[in-house]
Design brief:
The complex is a heterodimer. Chain A is mainly α. Chain A has 2 domains: 44 residues; 226 residues, MetI-like fold (Orthogonal Bundle). In chain A, 77% of the residues lie in helices and 0% in strands. In chain A, helix 1 crosses helix 11. By secondary structure, chain B is of the alpha/beta class. In chain B, the strands form 2 sheets. In chain B, strands 6-7-8-3-9-10 form a 6-stranded mixed β-sheet, with helices on both faces. In chain B, helix 7 runs parallel beside helix 8. The radius of gyration of chain B is 19 Å and the shape is globular. The relative contact order of chain B is 0.18. The longest helix of chain B has 14 residues. Chain B has a single domain, classed as 3-Layer(aba) Sandwich (Rossmann fold). Chain B starts with 6 loop residues before the first helix and ends in a 5-residue tail after the last helix. Chain B contains 11 helices and 10 strands. Helices cover 35% and strands 23% of the residues of chain B. Classes of the chains: A mainly alpha, B alpha/beta.
């Protein structure tokens, strides 16, 4: 009797283990499936021209997406200027002064904004920037992405600052240092690599956003100059090219997807490498 | 703010560091602390009840008691470190040489009442030198010569100088546990406090490192008022002049260490030191 109970337990154990391992396998294979699929389709259309030339007019084959690649980086740069200072300072507030109701609400608000569909962010930036200025612009795109960046940066900054043990702050305070100096000169340097990792991950998250750019940065078949003209970006190009009826554009869309994926991948791996060298706080 | 020194004044008022023949640091004449009817709460929970005691200058006062008796909480009120916990509430009077601790600026107060914690916590991004210099440097002292003098003197007083003098640029976290704790003591001494609070400074150390710290404490009491929290009764007996026994947030007995350990007046004290509970 006891032996059958034991056998049964072993069997259930095996079953549960197999189920979890199977699902873990699926998670992993989805990643590799996407990577592989995009690589196979994208690689064939990827060539030097893709990185150096402007898109060709409809009907002509060839050309590239140099403007979209540059535009994506420009938009991310602009979004950083808008979103990172607010997000990081807000994150410092939440982590260091947020053990109260205000902190709770800021955290909560950040999570809610994080959950807002990105197209709503686009509409918001459209109303705030595009409508008053009466035209699409890189600025509007940067604002849309920047606003998305704020809550993400708040949370990642908070996360890495709270990894710094309370005892380090106390040690600083006990030396007769004012709190702001403890934060600025001791806590932030201790968490620095973590904060940098956070920023890289945050940027890689918004760099693939398409919806907020559709009616803010809009798109441009040429180099968009300055901040006040519409600008091309990889995600929007992928969208436009993928839904077009032209075979050649489809191939270019795959190439663009591959380039975007590689950019995101490099940022992510870079972030991990930075974190690995973080000063260990035992 | 009355009777309080401007930090820059404190930092610049030591002309000695520049003349090598004299001791590099002059600590302010040591000061005593008096607690009058201290009651303390974390949220609704009362942690300390009506504590009154006088801590004598340039003596070692040990606070003993079982875990959760409020001994750590009590010494954290002495330099107002309890204020980092938002729900903390304190009633009563705390005097440092007659000045009301609760009315002093906490930042200034903590330069006069330094603290060493249970877990040695060197600043991870800083070298040994920078750790000791941190308190002064982050408060604006940039004279390299003066800093070097104070760092050396602090490390000497913390009995660590000989072990680290050849690699002051190494990270503080690379030291052993016992060395890290002495580094933290040196760091606390560098800002010239009059009082040193030690919250179970040896509880994470092996016996040899503990013996070193105890020896150090006995040397430091010539210049500093020391309050040490310990759950190790032998340690209290070895290093302290006076001992306070806390139980469930109350001060049960306070007096000469020898008397407490040989002729305790209270039955509860006797039970505790003879190991009948705790």
């Amino acid at each position: 009797m006891e032996l059958t109970a034991y056998r049964r337990r072993l069997w259930i154990n095996k079953l549960a283990f197999t189920a979890t391992a199977f699902c873990a396998g699926i998670t992993l294979s989805v990643l590799f499936f996407i990577l592989g699929y995009v690589t196979i389709h994208g690689l064939s259309a990827l060539n030097w021209n893709f990185f150096t030339q402007l898109p060709k007019p409809v009907g002509e084959s060839g050309g590239g997406m140099a403007n979209a690649i540059a535009g994506t980086f420009k938009l991310i740069f602009g979004a950083s200027l808008v979103g990172l200072p607010i997000g990081i300072l807000g994150g410092i507030y939440v982590a260091e002064f947020g053990k109260n109701k205000t902190g709770f609400f800021v955290r909560y608000a950040a999570d809610i904004i994080n959950g807002v569909p990105s197209i709503v962010m686009g509409i918001f930036a459209y109303t705030m920037v595009v409508l008053p200025m009466k035209h699409f612009s890189a600025l509007a795109g940067a604002v849309a992405l920047g606003i998305m960046l704020i809550p993400i940066a708040v949370r990642s900054t908070e996360e890495f600052l709270t990894l710094v043990p309370m005892s380090i702050r106390e040690a600083g305070l006990a030396l007769g240092l004012p709190q702001w100096k403890v934060i600025l000169r001791i806590v932030i340097p201790t968490a620095f690599r973590g904060l940098l990792t956070g920023v890289l991950l945050d940027l890689s998250r918004v760099s693939g956003e398409t919806a907020p750019l559709l009616f803010t940065a809009f798109g441009n078949r040429y180099w968009g100059s300055g901040w006040l003209n519409p600008i091309s970006s990889l995600p929007v190009m992928i969208y436009t090219y993928a839904v077009s009826p032209y075979e050649d554009w489809h191939r270019q869309a795959w190439a663009a997807a591959l380039v975007l994926l590689i950019v995101v991948l490099i940022t992510n791996v870079g972030a991990r490498l930075v974190m690995r060298r973080q000063v260990r706080v035992s | 703010m009355k009777g309080l020194l401007d930090p820059r004044e404190v930092l610049t008022m030591n002309p000695e560091p520049l003349t090598s023949s004299q001791p590099a640091m002059s600590s302010t004449p040591s000061q005593g602390i008096e607690a009058r009817h201290i009651n303390f709460w974390f949220g609704p929970k009362q942690v300390l009840t009506d504590i009154s005691m006088k801590i004598r200058p340039r003596h070692v006062t040990a606070i003993i008691g079982p875990s959760g008796c409020g001994k750590s909480t009590f010494i954290r009120t002495l330099n107002r470190m309890h204020e980092v916990v938002p729900s903390a509430r304190l009633e009563g009077e705390l005097l440092l040489d007659g000045a009301n601790i609760l009315e002093l600026d906490p930042v200034m107060l903590r330069r006069r009442i330094g603290m060493v914690f249970q877990k040695a916590q060197p600043f991870p991004t800083m070298s040994i030198f920078d750790n000791v210099a941190a308190g002064l440097r982050l408060n604006g002292l940039s004279n390299r010569l003066q800093l070097e003098h104070i760092v050396e003197e602090s490390l000497r007083r913390a009995a660590l100088w000989d072990e680290v003098k050849d690699h002051l640029e190494k990270p503080g976290t690379a030291l052993s546990g016992g060395q890290q704790q002495r580094l933290c003591i040196a760091r606390a001494l560098a800002v010239s406090p009059a009082v040193l609070l030690m919250d179970e400074p040896c509880s994470a150390l092996d016996p040899i490192a503990t013996a070193k710290i105890e020896e150090l404490i006995l040397g430091l009491k010539k210049n500093y008022t020391i309050v040490i929290v310990t759950h190790n009764m032998q340690q209290a007996a070895r290093v302290s002049d006076e001992t306070a026994f806390f139980l469930l947030g109350e001060l049960i007995e306070f007096g000469d260490t020898k008397t407490i350990f040989t002729l305790p007046k209270d039955k509860k004290t006797e039970d505790y030191i003879t190991g009948r509970f705790g």
